[in-house]
Amino acid sequence: MTTASSVRADAVLAVLRPDVRELTANVDAAVLRPADLTALDRADRARIALRVALVNDQPDDELAAELDALAGEGSAEIVRDTERWAELPEAQQALLAHCEQVALDPADVSVAEIGELRAQGFSTAQVVAAAQVVAATSFRIRLLRGLRLVEESDAGPCAEPANTIAVGSTADGCELPTPGEAFPQMRWVPWVEADSFDVALQHDPEALEACSKLYNAIMTDPGELAAAERELAALAASLRTGCALSSGVHGRRQVELSDDLVTSVALAEAGPAAVPDQRQRAIVDAAAALAPTPTALTAEHIGRLRAVGLSVEGIRDLIAVAAMTAWTNRLAMTLGNATTREADW
Q1: DSSP labels for 159-194?
Q2: Can you spell out the DSSP letters for 212-275?
Q3: Using the 8-state DSSP alphabet, how is residue 87 labeled?
């Protein structure tokens, strides 16, 4: 049955580039309603997705109705009210609390939490599947939020932010490091049974395939936003979330694509105030604003993007990049840890 909320969401997503729109539609099926439910059943997936929506201040009536249909009337209300979580089995409470933390701030998730889930009887496949549900739901919420703001915004005048840090220096006036120093090669150390990030995600192959195809379309397929600007947006979002692995990847890639040895390094070392170009600054600020939970993206961010020359299609590309970064950050930060220290390898 098609609900009013799903119609609204479908209408919003209809403005995306055809490749991104089609692959985004595939994500729900792969993550929330996959063919293989041996890791997590549909009720568990709906329960997690609904909690992620709630902590993002985006209640989802469709998800709530689906959960009630799958797990019994009133199940959605239990998810909404943390004081009623005691009505759930202890293992389900632990999983839901973990998923809430992944959605809120993945930087606060530790290897100890993965150990606690394993002690509750959850397998690696179940932990990875739960992380994919959180990450994919975080992506969809941010995508819809940003696209709705684009539709509601106009191209009126917007104030330009003041730059407070000299170009080519850090906040304390020191010289910037080189790109190689700012974005060193890092190794991802898994907290689950795997020897690499990709291998870890193969514990949920259906979600991995959907995520990979969508990621490639958003980051590399032809679009209005230049490839170097997409990498800059992904870097800004990763820095805001605190994902060292993704920051390094996108920082290096932005330097390679742009031959600009300063902008990404300045952003990483001194923050958005060190980005002097107003187009790049608007991109950085908007992408970073979409990163936290709940998101901080506003109509003013969209207005500034329009004011510096981004087309509506280019802004939609940027929103998709930042939303996808929220997905990949949550996987990288909560299934393992990035390090440059040989002792950790």
Answers
A1: PPPPP-S-TTB-TTSPBPPPHHHHS---EEEESSS-
A2: HHHHHHHHHS--SS-HHHHHHHHHHHHHHHT-HHHHHHHHHHHHHHH--SSHHHHHHHH-GGG-
A3: G
Specify the 3-state DSSP secondary structure of 61. Answer: helix
Place of tokens 């020359």: 309
Q: Which two tokens stand for residue 175?
A: 């010289």
Residue 18 exposed, middle or buried by CB count within 10 Å (0-12, 13-18, 19+): exposed
Residue of higher predicted confidence among 234 and 167: 234
- Condensed to tens digits (0 to 9), the pLDDT of residues 214-249 reads 999 999 999 999 999 999 999 999 999 999 999 999
Amino acid at 216: N
* pLDDT of residue 212 exceeding 90: yes
Beta bridge partners of 175: 169
**Other Cβ atoms within 10 Å of 57 Cβ, number:** 11
The torsion angle over the Cα atoms of residues 202, 208, 212 and 213, rounded to 10 degrees, is 130
Q: Do the beta carbons of residue 319 and residue 305 sit within 8 Å?
A: no
